[in-house]
Amino acid sequence: MDTQKLRQRILDLAIRGKLVPQDPNDEPASVLLDRIRAEKERLIAEGKIKRPKAKKSTDKSHYQNFTPPFDIPTSWEWVRLEDICFVITDGDHQAPPKANDGIPFLVISDIITGIIKFDKCRYVPVEYYSNLETYRKPSKGDILFTVTGSYGKSVIVETDKRFCFQRHIGLIKPILITKYLNIVLCSEYIKKECDAKATGTAQKTVGLESLRNFYIPIPPLSEQLRIIDQCQICEELLIKIDVGKKLLGALIEASKSKILDLAMQGKLVPQDPADEPATDMLRRINPNAKIITDNPHYPQLPDNWVLTKLGDVVKVINGKSQKEVENPSGAYPIYGSGGVIGKADAYSCLSGSTIIGRKGTINNPQFIETNFWNVDTAFGMKPYEAVNDLY
C-alpha cells in the first residue's frame, strides 16, 4: 500500500467537501468570509496591517471572472489566500550574520519533512532578529511554506520559540483556522498550482504574488473542524500502517535470512541416501576442486555434503566496458551492480547466471534468466553443469 498516495487522496477529498458530510445547519462560508473582511478592514484602519498593493478595499470584485478548478459544495466559497491572511511574506533578503548561538535561523532543510527541526539549524545574533520587521517574525499558529527549490512544502508553527528563516521560505499568517489551511496547502492541488506558477531555471521559485493569489476552497467553520478531526484520524491510521509495513518488511527479511541459513546447513529439506554424494559430483565436474574440511560457519553439514570454494563450482565472468556492444535497440540487457543500465548487441553471460556487484551495490545478487552483458562493476557467475543454477 502506497500510504503517501493515500494521504494525498484523503487531502483531495477533504478540500472538495467529500471527506465529511455537509450539515445544512452550518453557517455558510460566505458569512465567515464577511467577518474576515470586516476584521481586515478594521486592522487596516488602525494601521496594524497594510492594505495589499493595487487594492483599494477587501471587496469581492476580483472573483467575478474566476473559473473554479473543481466543484465544491454550495455552502463553501472560493477565496484568494491573501484575503484570509493578515500577511504573506518571506524571510529577510539580506544575508544574515552568523553566530554560534542566539536566535535559530531556519533554511528549507530544517522544515522539509513537515516538522520544524532546530537540532541542526544555524544561528543569528539576537540583535539581527530584533531589527527584523514584526511581520517577518513567525508566531505560533503561522504557516511556513517553501517557495524556492523544494517549493510547496507546508508546516505549521507550533512553538512559541523565537526564530527566523531564509528568504526561500514564505510566512503565512492566517486569519482562519490554521490546521484547515495547512490541509489545503499540503494538497496535490496546491502542488500543481506551484508547478504552474514557478519560474526560474537553476532553482525554480514560486513568487509571493503568485502565492498570495492562490485560490483556496473554504468550507463553513464547523465543517473545517470536522475535516481537521477526520484528517487527524486518517493520519493516525496511516502512521500505524507505515509502522506495520516496516515491521512486516523486517520480519520478511529475517524469515528470508533464516530460510537461506537452514538451506545452507542442509536443514531445509530431508536428505536422500540414494543421492550421489557431493564429493563424487565435485570430482566429476572439477577434478582439481579442493574439499574444505575446516568449516567454522557450518561445522555440522550432512554426511553427503561437501564444502568447497565458489570458484571450483562456478565460472566467474569479469565484467568489461559496454562501449563496443551498446545499442539502444540491442537484444541483450546490460547489467551493472545496481541493475539494467542499457542494451547490447552481444552478451558475456549465459542465462541462468547470477550477477553480483563488486562496486556500488555489492550485497544484492540477482538471478538473470536471459543472456546479458555485465560491465566492470559486476561479476557474472554461471555454475558448472551439475550444479543447479538457482541453487
Structure, described:
The structure is a single chain. The strands form 6 sheets. The chain has a 4-stranded antiparallel β-sheet with strand order 2-8-5-6. The model has no long low-confidence stretch (mean pLDDT about 90). By secondary structure, it is of the alpha+beta class. The chain has helices at about 5-15, 30-45, 125-130, 180-185, 190-195, 210, 220-265, 280-285; strands spanning about 75-80, 85-90, 105, 120-125, 145, 155, 165, 170-175, 215-220, 290, 305-310, 315-320, 330-335, 340-345, 355, 365-370, 375, 380-385. Strand 13 (about 330-335) and strand 14 form a beta hairpin. Helix content is about 30%, strand content about 20%. The two termini are about 30 Å apart. Helix 1 packs antiparallel against helix 7. It has 8 helices and 18 strands.
